[in-house]
Amino acid sequence: MEWLHAQPALFTGLVFLFGLLVGSFLNVVIHRLPRMMEAEWHAQCAELRGEAPAAAAPFNLAVPRSACPQCGHQITALENIPLLSWLWLRGRCSSCRTPISVRYPLVELLTALLSAAAAWKWGVSVQTVGALLLIWTLVALAFIDLDTTLLPDSLTLPLLWLGLLFNLGGYFASLPEAVVGAMAGYLVLWSVYWLFKLATGKEGMGYGDFKLLAAIGAWLGWQMLPVTLLLSSVVGAAIGIAMIVLVKHDRRVPIPFGPYLAGGGLVALFFGADLTHAYLGQL
């Protein structure tokens, strides 16, 4: 550990490589977790109807092995090397040549870059471990919400409790600041939700957004909530307006807010204190 302390560049490089591996696993989580949730909902509905759940092959984060959705070709170990395999295969299945989405290597690269940034900022420390857990979960949540407009409780709630656990030692905020951050994060968006619903009769966001902001508040403290909300709201509004104006996005189709909250939380994690101090300095 002392040797890694003395070699920050080496430690950052190792974390970058590990981040590529985690990013590959996050691609599995992003793809499979919503399908696992859907299967669970179907089983619960069948149980409520008094029916036996339909028999199905095991499907979870470990089985079955990853395969091409077009031809069923099982991905070999050499074809599953993060980032490099996609480049080597030129973004196509080795069997049927069906294109493989560029998002897979982008998730791997994004996870690795953010992980390396955390390692460089906090070095060999408990803060780095916490920051990595927060980063990885936010990346998974952002892409799941982008695909399905869902923010699974199986990720948001453990993230909230982990934030409070880490801040028992005051690693990112004091425990009182973390508790207030969790409560304020939930109540702020809960209040916006009900004000919007009372004014328009429509739901402007989902309960998963409340839980996600509560989790960010539990990790970073209530002081980082204004930065997170401001960044996520401004970026989300700008992209939403651009989608409606430029690509004729149907206004009746909801635009997920989770990716912008996750992005705002990541910016607050790395630069929140500096941005807050700069803003207060201007005032």
- Count all strands and give the number: 0
Which value, in Å, is the CA radius of gyration? 21 Å
Oligomer: single chain
Beta-strand fraction estimate: under 5%
- Helical content (DSSP H or I, runs of 4+): 55-70%
Secondary-structure-derived class: mainly alpha
How does the major sheet shape up? none
Low-confidence stretches: none
Helix-strand string:
HHHHHHHHHH
Shape: globular
Task: Calculate the terminal CA-CA distance, rounded to whole Å.
Answer: 43 Å
Average pLDDT figure: 90
Number of helices: 10
Structural summary, described in words:
- With 283 residues, the chain is mainly α.
- The chain is 69% helix and 0% strand.
- It contains 10 helices and no strands.
- Helix 2 (8-48) crosses helix 5 (126-148) and helix 7 runs antiparallel to helix 8 (207-220).
- The mean pLDDT is 90.
